[in-house]
Fold this protein.
Amino acid sequence: MINATHKASLPKLYEARAAYIYKPDGKCIGMMTPERFHLLRERFHETQKNGLRRYMSSPVQCLASEIAGLLQDHQARLKTPKVSQLTLESYSRILPQHISAALQQCAMVSKEKMASALDFDPGNSSYWSKRHGDVVFGANYNAFATKFTGFSICQPVFDD
């Protein structure tokens, strides 16, 4: 029986903290953990400070518009018609932290290929993304356009 003395416990899903991202009209675009939001903010400002954004082909806006664009691109990929469940799931895979840490420590992995700004491991020195816009968050663009050197983690995105 649920009452004032016997509270209902919430499932783990509802215990997690999340930062919700909204459009100016008040519609929610998506959400992410506060830690991921702060990481993206940090990387965005580092990129700005280092002057790397001037090499972007499209003009970079503010942090809010870049995060909104990132989430809208992600949502658009998930809504592509005739996409298999395997493809949809591959867009949301994040390597568990303990496995990533073990690979960094034991195999000297320091790079992540085929990641995105939404799921890269900040413990690696660099990451590559399929989305050109992720460059504003410190990504390198197109893993296949650069030489593979050293050890890296690669979780390819499936395409139908």
Summary: Residues 13-154 form one domain. The mean pLDDT is 79. The first strand starts at residue 19 and ends at 22.
